[in-house]
Amino acid sequence: MASLFRSHNIRKTALLSIGIFFLMILIFKVSSDTTPDLADLLNQAGSVVDPNEELRKNTNGNNNDNSGSSDGNSGASNHHLGGLSFTGNRKQNEELELAKKLNELTEKLLDDQEVRLKKLEKDRLQLEKQLNELRRPHQDATLRERLAYMFPYDQDRKFPAYIWQSWKYGLNDERFGPKYKKGEEQWAVKNPGFVHELFNDDTSNAIVHYVYMNIPEVVRAYELMPHVILKMDFFRYLMLFAKGGVYADVDTLPLQPIPNWIPENVEPSEIGMIIAIQSDPNSQDWREHYAKRLQFGNWVIQAKPGHPILREMIATVTEETLKKENDGTLVLPELNMEMNIMNWTGTGLWTEVIFKYFNDYVLSGIFSKVTWKDFTKLDVPKLVSDVLVLPITCFSPGLGEMGSQSEEHPLAFVKHYFEKLYRQP
Ligand SMILES: *[C@@H]1O[C@H](CO)[C@@H](O)[C@H](O)[C@H]1NC(C)=O
């Protein structure tokens, strides 16, 4: 639209100039017709009217060497004056001929300009298209690039006021136990103003298909998972990545409102994610129970949409699941089931991805190496990059081990029943 408007303006200006040009010819013509002596008058008064002539006359007196060229100049100017409008009909025809030629030339120039403008506009549209394609993930963009494009991360935004939960059964299903019902109720009661949604098998399946329809590998990986517990793990990362907010497992009971999680001396704009320590065992045999020396929990997570940790988690889980399909190992073995879940979708991989993020300078902005030692025996919240890491007490109070304090502790935010959800019918 803008360029169209501009070309209109150019055309208008050009037409106006042509108009003025013809008007001037008309005025000359009219004045030469009505005052036939004007040429004579001007010729007589020539030396007086033309100040250059006066100047030349004066300098001629002082410098005779220049007189020749000066005379030549003044002669040319006289001839020019006469040529334009002061001698006869033949001249007038020539003038009209000249005007016509000028007009044609202007028309041609305008046409050329129009063509050039059209070409410019075409180039501009082409450029705009290329820019859009740059912004859009190109055909062979990686999974991570497409995830980042679909759900960009903005640390400055607020934590969306959502609480997401999921369980095999819906709230109205009789198999939805009273203990979980109380937890579900309390998440809503303690957090007025939050949108609170509990998904069952069917609804979580539907929303994953809907939200990730443009990233088919993700949907495929979700569908391929051979156990509901894997899907529930995957579901939390997918929801938080796309929508942000809080995810809480169904075997949790909130003890304090969500806004209490952020310490007074930390600005919410500094945080992109809140997690808590799951396990920090001091015994040598930790490998029998855990994948990592210190693990972060995933039963309660708060995140802003598009967080890079979630992106990496989703990409890794997707790739590993598709690889298992390819390798024909798409099964969750009964033997060592807990550890297998931990490494596939659970807190083992979760912890690995978080440490990977901390140690990626480009993503986290942290120069020094970050290890489990930075979090062991943590008893106050710690902000590392944009991740607020809470002590074990926050989401696992009353354990009686690994430094977990009682449920009455001011930092006890959420009670976790540690039901082995994957064992439940
Ligand atoms: C789980 O992953 C850890 C490394 O993160 C590895 O040491 C362990 O053997 C894995 N266990 C299983 C059962 O895959």
What is this structure's SSE topology?
Layout (H helix, E strand, L loop, with lengths): L1 H33 L3 H12 L1 H12 L4 H19 L2 H48 L7 H8 L11 E5 L11 H13 L4 E5 L1 H11 L4 H9 L3 H16 L1 E4 L3 E3 L18 E7 L15 E2 L3 E4 L4 H20 L9 H8 L2 H12 L2 H4 L17 E3 L2 E4 L1 H4 L18 E3 L9
Parallel strand pairs: 1-2, 1-3, 5-9
Antiparallel strand pairs: 3-7, 4-10, 5-6, 5-7, 8-9
Helix pairs in contact: 1-5, 6-11, 8-10, 9-11, 10-11, 11-13, 12-13
Keywords: Coiled coil, Glycosyltransferase, Golgi apparatus, Membrane, Signal-anchor, Transferase, Transmembrane, Transmembrane helix
Subcellular location: Golgi apparatus membrane
GO cellular component, one term: mannan polymerase complex
Summary, kept brief:
The chain has 425 residues and is of the alpha/beta class.
Structural class comes to alpha/beta
Strand tally is 10
Task: Note the main sheet.
Answer: 8 strands, mixed
* CA gyration radius, whole angstroms: 41 Å
Biased composition (Low complexity): 58-78
Membrane topology: Single-pass type II membrane protein
GO cellular component, one term: mannan polymerase complex
Subcellular location: Golgi apparatus membrane
Give me some keywords for this one.
disordered N terminus; single chain; Spore Coat Polysaccharide Biosynthesis Protein SpsA, Chain A; alpha/beta; 54% helix; binds 2-acetamido-2-deoxy-beta-D-glucopyranose; two-stranded antiparallel sheet
